[in-house]
Amino acid sequence: MTASMPTAGDDLAVLVVESNVVRVDDCVPMIRKRFPGMRVLYAKDVASLEDQIAEADVIIAAQSDVPVQLFDKARRLRWFQNTSAGVDRLVPIRDRLCDVIITNARGVVSETIADFVMGGITALHWDFPRLIREQSRKEWNQQGFVATLSERTLGVIGLGAIGTAIASRGKSVGMTVVGSKRDVSQPVPGVDKLFPPEDLVGLLQLSDFVVLAVPHNPETTKLIGREQLQQMRRSAFLVNIARGGIVVESELIHALKTGVIAGALLDVFEREPLPSDSPLWTMHNVMITPHASGNAEGYLNHVFEIFADNMQRFLTKKPMRNLVDLRRGY
After folding, report:
1. Mean pLDDT across the chain, nearest whole number?
2. What confidence category does residue 2 fall into, taking pLDDT thresholds of 50, 70 and 90?
3. How far apart, in whole angstroms, are the C-alpha atoms of residue 221 and residue 247?
4. d(C-alpha 207, C-alpha 185), whole Å
5. What is the pLDDT of residue 10?
C-alpha cells in the first residue's frame, strides 16, 4: 500500500461493497451523479470483492463486509470509508492499514440511538415487558406506584457522539446524568458529573440506568464483568447499544438470574444473531432487540453526504471529516 495519493485527474477507482445499509444499486448511481467520470466499481458478494479490491483506491463499505485477509490484496487502497461508526474489526490489522486513511459514519445515528435508549429506559422503568405478558394472557393487574424518571440517575459510559446524545435525552426529561470518558478536564453539556475510566465504580454505584456507548477496543473488551455488575444497584438496569464483547455475557446472565441487577435492554451480543439456546431469550427481566438501535431512516443518504464531502477533501488534500485513529480504536 505505497501508491501515491490520487488527484482529480487520475483514474481514481471507488469500490462500493454491498451491505444491509449500503445497497450497490442505490449508492453507485449517487456517486456517478455527484462525481461524473469517476470510475466506480461494485461488489455484491465476497467473490466479486476479492476480484476487484486490488483496483480500488477508495472503498466505501461496512467494516464487517470486508474480510480482513482481503486487505492484503488492496495494494492501491488509500482511503476506507466505513459506513458505520465502529471500527473494532479493523483495529487488529491496524499495522496493515497504517498508510490508509480511515473515516467512519460517526454522528449519523446518534439521535436515533438516543431515541431508542430513552424508549427502552421508559419501558424498563414501567416494566412494560410484564404488562405485555399480562396483556397476552388477558390479565388486568393494577400497576404499583412508579417514580418519575426525573428522580432517577442515568449513567452513560462513553461520551462520544452517541453517548452525548443519550446524555442530552436523559437530561431533557430531568434525570441526573453522570458519564465516563477518557478526558474529564472539560465539562460535557447535559452531564452533571464526569468519571474517568479508572473510577468506573463511582458511576456504577450512582446509576439507576447504566448505558454502554463505548467503542469496542482492547481497553473496553469485557469492561463489564462480575465485579462491575456487583457494584451496580440491585434496582439498576443495564443498557447495551455498543458491542456485545464489552460485556461478559455469562456473568450478565448470572447477575440477571440472581437479582444482582434488576434487568437489561440488550441490542448487541457476543454472538449475533443471538443463539436460540441463549437463556437471555426467555428471561422476564430482559428486553432483546436484533442490533436495531442504529436503524435510522435515510441512513444511506446521511452516509453518502459524509462520503461526498470527504471525497472533495480527499481530492484537494484537505483535512477529512470523521477521521479514525486505529491506535485508539475510534
Report:
1. 95
2. very low
3. 7
4. 21
5. 55
Average pLDDT over residues 236-252: 98
Q: Residue 299: which of 58, 63, 107, 24 has the closest Cα?
A: 107
Question: Rounded to the nearest 10 degrees, what angle do helices 128-136 and 110-125 cross at?
Answer: 70
Give ranges for CATH 3.40.50.720 in the chain: 13-108+296-315, 110-288
Please give the CATH architecture assigned to the domain spanning 13-108+296-315.
Answer: 3-Layer(aba) Sandwich (3.40)
State the alpha helices, DSSP H only, in the chain. 24-34, 46-52, 110-125, 128-136, 161-172, 200-206, 226-231, 249-258, 299-315
Residue 89 near residue 64, CB atoms below 8 Å: yes
pTM for the complete prediction? 0.93
Catalytic residue ranges = 243, 272, 291
How high is the pLDDT of residue 3?
Answer: 43
Q: Is 303 or 21 the better-scoring residue by pLDDT?
A: 303
